[in-house]
């Protein structure tokens, strides 16, 4: 899965440094230099995390977080605030509106990547390489293996990516278009019916262990991965 970070920072030198450090660590980056540009970039496929400066031309980081939290599609995106403000009151304000962590400038690249990975492990498991397990169904992103109750399951690369996305985004309905954007990517032309084909293949791959019931069709809306029937 693409691990995309959105860097929102008005100082060009800091913005370029952040992007360079993140790309060296294997992330892809997009950057915005002001409030309006950041808003324009909030579209599918959404970033795994946002590095957000407190003070921005056209608005504040606090305002941007409030905007994120008002939209069902973006409220789950984790945010790390970047700021020169070290006062405890400011930190509390940032965390209270929904920031997941807070880094005070200046900071080292090592501290940044360590804090970023910690937040992703906590709130965005799709962006890390941890093994995911749901009711005996186990997916290992590193070895690219799927097993169920110690039985190895065979599936194609697209089914693997689809299952990975489902297992890291459970209990939520996704339309075919949303699945296409998140699993196939926005730069690939694929028909909606292709999603149905791969859903059928995925269900078949996990049916031997009885986990096909976790991949549910929601009539008129799309699909969800759920442990509740």
UniProtKB/TrEMBL annotation:
SUPFAM superfamilies: C-terminal effector domain of the bipartite response regulators, CheY-like. Its main location: cytoplasm. Residues 4-120 form the Response regulatory domain. It comes from Oceanisphaera sediminis. Gene3D superfamilies: 3.40.50.2300, 6.10.250.690, Winged helix-like DNA-binding domain superfamily/Winged helix DNA-binding domain. The modification 4-aspartylphosphate is found at residue 53. This protein is a positive regulator for the phosphate regulon. Transcription of this operon is positively regulated by PhoB and PhoR when phosphate is limited. Residues 129-227 bind DNA. It comes from the Bacteria. It is found in: Cytoplasm. This is Phosphate regulon transcriptional regulatory protein PhoB. Keywords: Activator, Cytoplasm, DNA-binding, Phosphate transport, Phosphoprotein, Transcription, Transcription regulation, Transport, Two-component regulatory system. PROSITE patterns: OMPR_PHOB (PS51755), RESPONSE_REGULATORY (PS50110). InterPro entries: CheY-like_superfamily, OmpR/PhoB-type_DNA-bd, Sig_transdc_resp-reg_C-effctor, Sig_transdc_resp-reg_PhoB, Sig_transdc_resp-reg_receiver, WalR-like, WH-like_DNA-bd_sf. Residues 129-227 form the OmpR/PhoB-type domain. PANTHER family: PHOSPHATE REGULON TRANSCRIPTIONAL REGULATORY PROTEIN PHOB, REGULATOR OF RPOS.
């Amino acid at each position: 899965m693409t691990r995309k970070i959105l860097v929102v920072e008005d100082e060009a030198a800091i913005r370029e440094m952040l992007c360079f450090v993140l790309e060296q660590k294997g992330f892809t980056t997009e950057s915005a230099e002001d409030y309006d540009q950041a808003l324009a970039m909030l579209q599918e496929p959404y970033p795994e995390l946002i590095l957000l400066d407190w003070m921005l031309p056209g608005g504040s980081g606090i305002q941007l977080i409030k905007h994120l939290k008002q939209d069902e599609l973006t409220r789950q995106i984790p945010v790390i605030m970047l700021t020169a403000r070290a006062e405890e009151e400011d930190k509390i304000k940032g965390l209270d509106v929904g920031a997941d962590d807070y880094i005070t400038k200046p900071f080292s690249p090592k501290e940044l990547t360590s804090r970023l990975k910690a937040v992703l492990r906590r709130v965005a498991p799709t962006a890390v390489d941890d093994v995911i397990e749901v009711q005996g169904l186990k997916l290992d992103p590193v070895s690219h293996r799927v097993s169920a109750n110690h039985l190895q399951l065979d599936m194609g690369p697209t089914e693997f990516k689809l299952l990975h996305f489902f297992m890291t985004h459970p209990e939520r309905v996704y339309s075919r278009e949303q699945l296409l954007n998140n699993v196939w990517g926005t730069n690939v032309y694929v028909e909606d019916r292709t999603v149905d084909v791969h859903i059928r293949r995925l269900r078949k791959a996990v049916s031997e262990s009885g986990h096909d019931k976790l991949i549910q069709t929601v009539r008129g809306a799309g699909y969800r991965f759920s442990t509740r029937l």
